[in-house]
Amino acid sequence: MKASGRRRTWTDPRVLLGIAISLIAIWWTFRDADFSAVGGELAHLRWRFLFGAFPLYFLSLLLRGYRWTYFIPRDNSSLRNRYNACVIGFLATNLFPLRVGEIVRAFVFARRSGRRLIEILATIVTERIFDLISLLILAIVSFPFIPLDRIAAELGADSLFALGRGRLMGFAAALAGGLLIAFILFCLFGRSVLTFLLARLHWEGGRLARFLNTLLDGLETPVKERTLFKVLLWSVGIWFLICLTYWVTLYSVPVPVHGSLAQIVGLSGAIFMQVVICAGIALPSAPGFIGVWHAATRVAFIPFLDSAPDLESKILAYAVVAHLYSYLLTIACGLEAFVNEGMRWSEMRDVSEGGDEGDGGERR
User: Fold this and answer.
1) I want to staple 259 with a disulfide (CB 3.0 to 4.6 A). Which of 161, 263, 306, 352 is the partner?
2) pTM for this structure?
3) Is residue 7 part of a domain?
């Protein structure tokens, strides 16, 4: 890989902004915490549920790799190659700043398959669109069972949750439907519009035209191959499996009378929690979503604070253990795939620091 003329470092303003947001989120989450009580809850965790959730967690990673084939045009890669690229990307996101995991993921797959890097990056953009639509669908399913007014009261009248249940569900449905329709229309007519514009500018045979057409190849596959609704079903199924995984981990925190946090929130609460966490970790943060994950978990539990006495310390203990659970398992799976892929650490570091990744799409 060629040396980069510009390295992303810990002094980059964007990195410092993410660290600042993480620190603020940690302060907000733990500002009133009784750390001795939180430590006591951690000491009484039911580890069997954390171990029991691992097969579900690992299956969700495998299914992500399987689903990716529906986004890649003319794909003949193996599930192992796609899985490796996915989890190495997650590894990079957890270890390096600026959320570079998706770039690393595209580089790993492009290097292995000989595909153009921009084409693979486009498939990841498409995947993220379907992830967002899936989370919105799951949010709509969970909203009827969640006392959203409690969150509005806690966060203030200007919060999104102050819209009310019906309006919030309508907003989520409109956003999901609008995204899906916009994506379909873009795939159906985007290339024609692009061809017309390039022809008018007399750029139809140039490097820019080839670049944009390659980008469209990676974006429009679900519509072009008529797998759109299959992909949507797979996406909703994968995210439901992820919600199910964390519902099982909720059983690890015991609650007198109720049994555990899982019995207090129910499956609908676990779905709602996952939606809120995904919204929270979309904010800039330090590597591994430190702070924003914990703050989002605390927000997700606000509707249930009155369900049992002294629930705050149990929620904070769960936020700590759930984040570590995801973080360490992702790193473990990523390292295994990294070794299997035969990569050098310098390769991933160079890509993550802004090295010249462009050759990665050409190699076989």
Assistant:
1) 263
2) 0.92
3) no
